[in-house]
Amino acid sequence: MKLLQTKPIYVFLLALFFCLHGSAENFGFISVNEVVEVFIAILIVISVAFAIINFVIKSALYAGFIVFIIASVYLFFGAIKSSLSQIPYFKSYTFLIPFLFVFILLLILLVRKNKMFLSKLTLFFNLLFITYCLYDMFTIAKKQFLLPAHSYLNSVGFDTQKVLYKPNVYLLLFDEYAGYTSLADSFNFKNDLFYEQLKKDSFQIMPINSNYSITQFSMASLFCMNYVKNIKDSATVGWQQTQQRMAEIKNAEVFDVFKSMNYEIKSFSLFEVGESKSMGANQYLLGHKRVLTNKIMHNVLLKDIGWKLAVGKNAKTWMQKIFLDDMPVYNNKIETALLETSIESTKSQFVYAHFLMPHFPFLYDSNGVKKTIAAHFKDEAWFNKAEYISYLKYCNKKIIEYEKAIIKKDPSAIVLLMSDHGFRDLRISTTESAFNNFCAIKTNQSKPSLDIHISNVNFFRFLFNQNFNQQIKYCKDSIIFLKEMP
User: Which tops the pLDDT comparison, 55 or 84?
Assistant: First the structure.
C-alpha cells in the first residue's frame, strides 16, 4: 500500500488504460501488435515528460500529477469535446481550448503545496487505474473467448450440390461510379462509347442501383446479400455503425458461399475480408491504429481545423499531403495486385478488387495527366462536374485495360464490373440518381436474363441463380439515404 501512496504509477497506467479501453471498445478492429505500438509511443512520451518535470521540480508525486492532467486531456480530447459539445460556447475552439488550459493550470496550482493531498490522490489514482485496466483486460478476454467462431450460415439457402461449373470470378468495384441515367441527367454526359466498348468485349450492361448512400453500408448489403438491420431512411450514422458494417463485410456470406464451393478468396481492398488485410486509404475508413489515435488532441484538431492550412492563400503542401494520405498510391497498389494475380491454382478463385475511382480526389484528367496536389484543394474541387467526368473518362480507360487483361489471361472467367453507389453530392445529383449504379457482367455461360432491375442487395443472389444453378429468392429492392455524423 505504501508503494501506491508514494509512486505515481497511475501516470504510466494511463497509457495502458488508454490502449486497453480503446481495444475493448473496438475489439476485432485492431491487432495486438498495433495496440502495443501505440502503447509504447505514448509511454515513451509520458516517461520523457515525467523525467523532465521531475528533474526540474524535484517531486515525483507532483510531477506525476502534472503529467497525468496534461496527458489525460490530450489523449481523451475527442471524448471531452464530444461530451461538452451540447453546452453553449464549448462548441467553439476559441472558448474550449482556453478553458481547458485554465482548467489544467488551476488543478496544477491547487495541489502544488499540499503534500498530504498529493499522497492521497496518488493512492486513489493508482487504485483507480489498476481497477480500470483489470476491468478492460477482463472485457477483452471475455470478448475473445466468448466470441462465437464464424461459420457458414447459408441464410440464402445456397445448395452446393447444384453447382455444375466453377469458373474464376473477378469483382472489380469502382467507388462512386455513377450509372448511365445519373450521368445523363446530372452531368449531361452520355457514357455511350464506354458502354459500346464493353459490349464489344462481350459484357452485358445490367440495370442496378445501390441500397445505401455510404460505402460501408452499400458494400455490407452487397456482400451479406441482406439489408442492414435497424437503419431508417435519412438516418445519421456514426463510427460505431460504420464499424459494424466493416465487421459484416469481413465475415460476409458471399465469401462463405464461395468458400463452400472450395473457392480461394483474394481481396485487394480498403476493407478487411477474412484474413486479408486492408490495403490502405484509411482516411476514408477509420481502422487499425486510427481507432485508438483518432480522438487524440492533435488528430481532432487536424480533422476539424487543419484543413484551413490545406486550402486558400495559406495552403501548405505538407498539410495537403496529410489530408490526401496514401490516396495517390492506393489505386496503383490495387491495380498491381489485381494484374499480378495468378490463375495457376488448384482451387477456383474469387478475386475482389476495390478501386477508389472515380471517387474524389480526381487524381488524373481524361488524358491520364496526373494533377498537382494543390489542384485537389481548390474551391469546389470535391463536386466539380467537369473534373469528375474527366476522371471518369480516365477510369473508363483503366476499366477496359483491366477487363481485357483478365479475359486474355483467364478467358473462361466471370468478370463483374460495378460501383457501390452513384455520385452522392446532392448539389449535383438528385437523391434518386445518387443511387444509380454502374454494372456490367461477362460470363461464358448462357446470357443472363436482364429483364429485371435489381439493387446491390440482390446482385449476388442474381449471380448465383444465373451462373451457379441456384433458386435463391430476391429481397424487395429499396433505397436508404444516410448522413454521416460530423
Answer: 55
